[in-house]
Amino acid sequence: MSNSLESPGRKVFSSSKEENAIREIFYQHWEKMKNEMTRTSDEINRWRQKSIADINKHADQEIQTLNNYYVRQRSVFDESRRANIDIATAYVHHVTKQSDLFGQLRDACSKLEFQVAKLEMVKGNMDYIKVITVEDYTKKMHENSIIKQSTRTDNSIHKNVNSSPNPTTASSNRIK
């Protein structure tokens, strides 16, 4: 941390009682600020550790999914390999002068594709911490209170308009 966390000092022995009283007040303010900064910094670090743990857990799950899929694909691969080697063996031992059939088999085997998986980036929402200044926070709270007051005023006007009796409807109800 920076040296701004160093104590501003509580008392100066060569100063008056009044000056030291002011120093003590500011020392207490500094102590609260320092403690708040430390608490907030700790909170950011807890968030960081949780986010890293969540990412690690997700990555571990994806690696396990990939591994499981690889195992399934490997059995398909092994079966295809075994079958094509058996065909090649049959060509070599049983079919004479059929090099063009072996060439076709070799070409077909070369064109086979075995893939495990592809990765796809999925955009998601991640909660993150943002440090805002007290001034910005106060301004935001003030704006929110203005919006709430405006909404309440609009709702009460709308309620009053809807609840006021309509003279035409009232008189026509009486006639019936």
Give your account of this protein's structure:
This protein is mainly α and about 180 residues long. It has a domain at about 130-175. The protein has 4 helices and no strands. It has helices at about 15-95, 100-110, 135-165, 165-175. The protein is elongated. The N and C termini lie far apart (about 85 Å). The model is unreliable at about 165-175 (pLDDT under 50).
Q: What's the arrangement of secondary structure elements?
A:
Blueprint lengths: L16 H78 L4 H13 L22 H30 L3 H9 L1
Helix pairs in contact: 1-2
Helix content: over 70%
Tell me what portion of residues adopts beta-strand conformation.
Answer: under 5%
Rough outline: elongated
Number of strands: 0
Q: What is the structural class?
A: mainly alpha
* Whole-number mean pLDDT: 81
Terminal CA distance? 83 Å
Order of helices and strands: HHHH
User: Largest sheet, if any?
Assistant: none
Q: Tally the helices: what do you get?
A: 4
Could you name the ranges where pLDDT drops below 50 across 5 or more consecutive residues? 167-176
- Compute the CA-based radius of gyration: 39 Å
